[in-house]
């Protein structure tokens, strides 16, 4: 087994010897010649050497996954598989501290967020999809032909086969298990590639799989990058039957091209440039606090985060000053401090991108109400990837600041005068993932649900998730829906059986 990941230094940022993270193929951890460094976003120090899977390692993982379809896993009933998946959830809870350390170490997110959101949701995904898979029905029809003959048609659910799962770094365990759990519940085997920025919690998950009794070859893990690395080797591998991907829209486009050659099924959860609409009739306290969450949670690094806020003119000035005041008071602390709210961006590269957008907003003529720079600490965090939570106004709807996904703690606020105008502004985007509407008008809430070109509309709330509901985006924000039965559709093939009676 891999060494335990729990090291207090991961939470405090104190120097320590970097650990080694390996690939997991056919039930065993395997090393590789090539490794890459995983740096702490809090202090910049190296916390792990990570074994990069080469083409041969990815091939071995896909081969093991294919063989496992014919092994004990393939012969189990849905009920037997779901018993194992519930054991995975139990084991994730037993390894809670390791997983918190892994997630906080890799991302610099606050320990309180990892404890209340990331890790519990990881375990919840396995229980939820164990339930869905064992209670799902399929359709059946009796058919009567003109000559009086009759037939019974019914659909049989079968696994798709080997599923490649490629995920980003922002909510690593949560987003990974959101796909691994339904894929396994439907009887598939998987090869997962976590982001190169967040290799740790996926490595703990590999240990959890083995300890929970998931047969060898069912869950395989390959570390590495995208192009010319493990990601591309996996998506182009002829032994992969389906690809499920969460990440940037441009990467989705590259993966779609790779998938086209093998006519592989794809499910894409991609980027966003989400709008929040605040109407004058809203509970303004709730709208301000809700917008603080929707803009700044996880350092603004959630695909569902709001980067464009539109506020009805009578409350526009008050909303801007209250949001800016709240942005300025969000606390910067060490991740191990329960009171910490802000977190660093994931890497220096991403920080340069976000700071580039702060500069772009400036050159486009934005007025800064909060932030706009980097915080200073006088300690090791000055080598980290922090930026200030930022609130800007004054830019036209077609400014790049308002049209491109920044994926950092920044929002632009603009006024509107009518409901119709608000919906037009919200829809003025090549993305269509989520929208948040703050209003006390019930009719307007439902009109927003119908009018907004997105996969998810939240009314008077944000990021409130029910795992049974359809999740996904329109336009550049994705293809397909996952969640509840929608996941079962993607991770299963249906065979129709027609029996003449
Ligand atoms: P990314 O697209 O750069 O990387 C995501 C994953 O794809 C990583 O594991 C990466 O190594 C891999 N990858 C990159 N190029 C590849 C290639 N050519 N072939 C195969 N794999 C490749 O995204 P990111 O920067 O890690 O994550 C941030 C993005 O993810 C944002 O755009 C965000 O909106 C999006 N996101 C979307 C959702 C959603 O549910 N819609 C959820 C979270 C994040």
UniProtKB/TrEMBL annotation:
Residues 30-497 form the Aldehyde dehydrogenase domain. The active site is at 269. It comes from the Bacteria. Keywords: NAD, Oxidoreductase. Pfam families: Aldedh. CDD domains: ALDH_F8_HMSADH (cd07093). InterPro entries: Ald_DH/histidinol_DH (IPR016161), Ald_DH_C (IPR016163), Ald_DH_CS_CYS (IPR016160), Ald_DH_CS_GLU (IPR029510), Ald_DH_N (IPR016162), Aldehyde_DH_dom (IPR015590), OHmuconic_semiald_DH (IPR017628). Belongs to the aldehyde dehydrogenase family. NCBIfam families: OH_muco_semi_DH (TIGR03216). This is Aminomuconate-semialdehyde/2-hydroxymuconate-6-semialdehyde dehydrogenase. It comes from Kribbella orskensis.
